[in-house]
Amino acid sequence: MKITLPGINLFEEKLCDKIKIAINEEIQNLDKTLKYSLTLEFDESLIYCSESIQAFFIPDEKLPQYQRGKELYGDDKMYAILGYQLKVAEEAVESCGIIINHASIQGSPFDEINCINVRLQEQEEKDLKLDKKRKNEKSLKCNVIMPSLTGFAKNVYNAFEKFEKEMDNVLERAFNSKELYKKYKVLVGKEELYKTYLDFKSEYGDMWIDSKEHRDELLRKFHQTVKIKAGLITDEKMKSEVIKPLIIPSKTIFELNVYKRTKTGNGIHKDIGQVSLMTNGKIIKIEYCARRKNYEIIDENFDDCYIEVNDRYDNFKLVNSIRELVEMANTIFEKYDFTINQDAMDNILDFIDIKRLIKMAREV
């Protein structure tokens, strides 16, 4: 329901009385068993009338505690007036037996400066089964103050425009070419390109595009991912390789020696290399470094030697996962008659905070 009050504006001192009269005239059209939202609308140009704002009187007891006894100026006074007049309107409506659970005051572009609109909207409520105690509790009220709807819309537009510009800048950097970006923007769409960028950000960290060590590899993977979405890469094998995450370990958790077994298999020779457990905060991966060329193992053998981790893992679960990972790696070494010194791992795991290390790696 919309009730228009002509001949008055935001600075009306008898706003309460005028609203009461208007509501009582429409009371037969309102259902007192329902709850309503109240919106008080005024001409938004009034928020720039500094003389009227400064001259408006607000009783000290109606101000918030921290503003009482103080002289208010500018925006402080303007917002105080809006809050005060909203409260006046709310009390006027409720004095007529109407329940308000949401109230707002809003400046809008009006043709007539001396005009106020009072809007009452029925509120739908879910049929909740409440106990007696909760039935007697007062529901929470929400009050909103918007000095200028036009100004708000302008701010939203400016924020949207800024976000669009930031998206363009980020994607141009990711493609390293304005022309290439324009091409794929037509083929895939700006929103889908930005979603792909965010997926990379989630997978490889906030600074993936500035990674010194992996920048070229990550950008190439980004471009190939976009080509898949554009339908330019159709080979299923190539698509599966592109989609597979690039594993970038960055922090050493600990290192273990690798030994060569004796010919009988009952003993071991001195160490021939070491395995490192590395983490980037999202995965823990095994890396092997041989001390001599004849003890090397092709890296591809360890491609599947990693585990994914997240914040929900506690130290106990991480330790067990690491034991399983090392055991998996050891089965690979056994094919070459090598073995990992797992006894040393037990001593290390008793004194190391794996979760803290993973958190530090994620922050890096």
Automatic annotation (TrEMBL):
Keyword tags: Coiled coil
Name of the protein: Uncharacterized protein
Coiled coil: 118-173
